[in-house]
Amino acid sequence: RVYGGVMLQCVWCAEESLSGVSERRRGLAQEKMTENGVFSRDKVLTIDTMNPTVKNVEYAVRGPIVQRAIQIEKELREGVKKPFTEVIKANIGDAHAMGQQPITFFRQVLALCSYPELLNENMFPEDAKNRARRILQACGGGSVGAYSASQGIDCVRQDVARYIERRDGGVPCDPDNVYLTTGASDGIVTMLKLLVCGEGASRTGVMISIPQYPLYSAALAELGAVQVNYYLNEEKCWSMDLSELERSLAEARKHCNPKALCIINPGNPTGQVQSRQCIEDVIRFAAKERLFLMADEVYQDNVYAEGCQFHSFKKVLFELGPEYSDNVELASFHSTSKCYMGECGFRGGYMEVINMDPEVQAQLSKLVSVRLCPPVPGQALMDLVVNSPQPGEPSHTTFMKERTATLSLLAEKAKLTEQILNTVPGITCNPVQGAMYSFPNISLPEKSIKEAKALGQAPDMFYCMKLLEETGICLVPGSGFGQKDGTYHFRMTILPPTDKLKILLAKVKEFHQKFTQQYS
Amino acid sequence: RVYGGVMLQCVWCAEESLSGVSERRRGLAQEKMTENGVFSRDKVLTIDTMNPTVKNVEYAVRGPIVQRAIQIEKELREGVKKPFTEVIKANIGDAHAMGQQPITFFRQVLALCSYPELLNENMFPEDAKNRARRILQACGGGSVGAYSASQGIDCVRQDVARYIERRDGGVPCDPDNVYLTTGASDGIVTMLKLLVCGEGASRTGVMISIPQYPLYSAALAELGAVQVNYYLNEEKCWSMDLSELERSLAEARKHCNPKALCIINPGNPTGQVQSRQCIEDVIRFAAKERLFLMADEVYQDNVYAEGCQFHSFKKVLFELGPEYSDNVELASFHSTSKCYMGECGFRGGYMEVINMDPEVQAQLSKLVSVRLCPPVPGQALMDLVVNSPQPGEPSHTTFMKERTATLSLLAEKAKLTEQILNTVPGITCNPVQGAMYSFPNISLPEKSIKEAKALGQAPDMFYCMKLLEETGICLVPGSGFGQKDGTYHFRMTILPPTDKLKILLAKVKEFHQKFTQQYS
Questions:
Q1: From the centroid of its chain, how far is CA A233?
Q2: Which CATH class is domain A60-98+400-518?
Q3: What pLDDT is attached to residue A32?
Q4: Does any CB of chain B come closer than 8 Å to the CB of residue A453?
């Protein structure tokens, strides 16, 4: 068996240990060998016949470095010796996985909704029971196991609308413009799906910040749209520059049809909180240039830095007066996954659309109906977030205590991260004003850049991979989010428990110094 | 204000009562009136600039007739007089909404997972607690609020694999080939997304049964693929004919590149259970013609008719021997939404891929990572379905009692539906062998067909709309699922409680006779 033995092993090895059919399979494979020794698998669906847009999709937050981290964890369990005893993952904004505790009230209501028999027990506070009863009454057959309306449960959308009105100082919100979603990602992809069309020079362009959250680039790749980059200003704490927006748009108009502008505020991966002035500028720009605005505001409660405040795009839009509030099309997104809740697993979220063409909105409603409905437990959770215990209700004190404790701890860790990283020569870290991430600039020695390029790797991927192998720390290279040519970064979450975060930062510091020396 | 006053009202009226800005808005609109009185809204995103593939999407199960039903319910609540006092919805397979009770054990475990404090209480059986502990241990930070792996929680995928092995008499199942999904719909759309590509005559064609479940046509429209229809044989109880598959494929090859064949078994909307022979024929056909098989098996426990049995495509594939089991590419789908569970709201499901090209499977894994993970409560529920209480465990007796009661009741209602419908002159109903639907053939008088066409409506839509207005019964016209030209049907679920189902069937009978008379 000279022909292609290695190939066979490569393609099938993973399966040989798992099923008894590999011998037969190999027999079959031999029959299908072509004369020049190439193994012909004869599949219908191959890398060459599959959807090419899917191949263009990349998602760094769960990319190769995370795959390797999982592998290393397995090796550690199997007793393989490493220079560390555990992998610390700071690659993804997954608060509960990092030990953050859920809000008691939320989980009580969810348990009551799941198993309404518990409504007869004395162990739950009355406000939790009341919320559960209200949600259950709004469900078909009084069960969270029924489909909801595709747009989401009516009373939840009403609660969302009232929450938005309170948040935005009374700016009206119509529940008919609120769509509950499967996490914010679902809403963002749905909106992009509506926007994207055309071929060649009339293909839809969508402006996204660089660095960006790679859901955007992945969705645009899948939809075959043109990703139009505008760069955040790292020198000015990752703020948005009007001149950069103008440059980016002018450039894009030469080869596509830019229709939308996406903003993440507070920023992911960059952790900045946009000023009111900046948001105003962006809205005026969108109005002037006729761009549909998409505001990803899932970190709206994650604001830590003094002097910083969250301003919703909607509120600023309405404060600019009817010329804007009656015209600029805006979709904004929220989620149960971030803020003080961190309930990622429930995949809850909502989007609000403003000034959307009624015909398009009818199409949106139709489109969401195909997937039947967002997960009902996630809808219930979204309801609790926007309708949390009020002063006077039995759960209010505990709720506020838990909420404040979580947000204060995050604020501490944001500061700690920035401070320690800035003590490392060759690392420069902007203040983590909000969200859950720092995105420090790292100086990489020329020699390491050359070595990475020789390996066909992005230099910061090379750096992060080495960091993982030597210290067990899992970060995501800046190249997965986009960055100015010739600059290098990594994204790390501020979520690990304080003691682990300190270890992580100390190890990063040590590693960076060693790495710099090694490649100098 | 002569110009376009009606238009203004039409476009904005819904908003006038809801926000204070309508006056300003109208002012603005006036400024933008063009000379010929057409109202220029000047939106970025309009019906003309939006994604045209989205416009082609249709989803009858939640289409115009259901919108009208919801409206009528509202009118009833507001005291509008109707010839009926309630709307009976038999349009969607939503068991809990129709009063089916959830399985106690499942909901106990879900409550425990949501609020693990309950593990300290004596009120839950030990097996429920053990299941909850096992699921929580597999979650990041021991919380269902953490993201899971994108492919799904490891131990759940292992349980799914063991379930499939038991179900299929020991045919091996590799957990690495199992992907947990957000309901079956998500898995189906994801697979289609991988398969679809090409332009013009090389566009991917996907063969689907007619009648079909409109998720398929909707997803294909959205992806811009070619829908290739093959007709089920109504005369032979909606079975699949090999000759019809051959005809359909040959026809399709003239104008596209057919790559996949979708089967729903037990059938939706048609309620048939395919014979083992038929499945064998389909597999041989797919192998010969090099088609990727997609088997939608979400109703696998819903088999009622004597002599009928569920055969999974995978089992039959492996029984056909290595020539098939080593080669034919298959994706099969299951869900928590149907069978005896009916837990639609949780959006749980899985898909198994077999003989998938490893490179493509890597692309699949990457693609699912962009959406982060399926809802964790749905994953937990899927785990319980595939790892239900075993003999000897404290919850086993109750579980079996509940499961059997639900399935027996469905079997009774399947029979009842068929029997009563077949007593109506002009209605012919195949046996409801499985699933949750009957799809009877209805004879419509020529005069009614003409009247419908004059209104631009499908004749069975005209019929169902009249039925709704006159009796409050909400069914879905056959045209929403596809049917042979010149034949007419409706789909009705067998899910309403027996007493309501009897009322529904009596009303349909009465209506059909009246309708026939009226248009004769």
A1: 21
A2: alpha beta
A3: 54
A4: no
